[in-house]
């Protein structure tokens, strides 16, 4: 026999029934419908304790409806009542804030033979006695250590903020591994090139800049590439904002100089798509040479690669890297370059498996072949 329900005589308070999870919940009131924020926890709606700020423990201002421990939103550039700023960290001077740059992914490696891996491991562990390293310029040694660019180091030296063996250094002086260097009163451990340098090839995408810092806050390749602990990446040449393809980076400044300097005439190969087509006579003239704003220029080689409609593809080879040189050579003949991809730089080719936005690091045996091709020693320095 079921029990009778208790009567409500005398204004007795009815027990609050619990809502079953399988019953539909009533929708929450949207924020701002009643002039206040929703509580983050149901119990917060019934609390009589004044919410306190999480850092100082002081009571929050009157009218605050946020639960204990929650931060109150403030306007951009404003400051909270307790003196703690609630706005995001301000960007660096001269560089506006932007979305976080996604790191480039590494191309999947294919394992070589055990013999090849053994050779790479031996080259990786090999070190050169620093006593055999010749003296180098002070600003170059500081830049290779990663303190700053060579120009920045020259400014510090000229300002008298660099000391060598307790004496103020002069611009252009050279140091050896036995010298002790201090920058702005702090001792600096010079990272001497005593091992095999590193080389990576990156498939640059359109819209990325080859620079370390852009005042407009645009994406740079150095923000996407992996960081180095004992040195810094040096880009071998540049690709403009709208050019994609092979970008070579290395930790050896000498190797980068060998590959970029006009006296070495290292070949650069590009795939070019144009709106329009060159005549056979124009192609011959492009290899003989034309006059541009900054002097004569020519293609070492040019050949047709087909196309559809108004678009035509060409393969071109140059032995210099002046600013927008490929585009300006085609513009000389009235054609606009709609796509420009670098596919080779010297002996390094853009792998077909390397997708845009990915990078591939050469193994030690491959690095050694590049150094031999450039006529450099094991550490990426000029042979004595």
TrEMBL record:
It is an enzyme of class 5 (isomerase). One of its GO terms (molecular function) is 23S rRNA pseudouridine(2605) synthase activity. Residues 102-113 have a biased composition (Basic residues). The keyword Isomerase applies. Residues 59-72 have a biased composition (Low complexity). The keyword Isomerase applies. GO terms for biological process: enzyme-directed rRNA pseudouridine synthesis. Transmembrane segments: none annotated. Its EC number is 5.4.99.-. PANTHER family: PSEUDOURIDINE SYNTHASE FAMILY PROTEIN-RELATED, RIBOSOMAL LARGE SUBUNIT PSEUDOURIDINE SYNTHASE B. It comes from Rivihabitans pingtungensis. It catalyses: uridine(2605) in 23S rRNA = pseudouridine(2605) in 23S rRNA. Residues 1-123 are annotated as: Disordered. This is Pseudouridine synthase. GO terms for cellular component: cytosol. Belongs to the pseudouridine synthase RsuA family. Responsible for synthesis of pseudouridine from uracil-2605 in 23S ribosomal RNA. Residues 114-123 have a biased composition (Basic and acidic residues). Residues 136-190 form the RNA-binding S4 domain. PROSITE patterns: PSI_RSU, S4. Pfam families: PseudoU_synth_2, S4. Gene3D superfamilies: Alpha-L RNA-binding motif, Pseudouridine synthase I, catalytic domain, N-terminal subdomain, RNA-binding S4 domain.
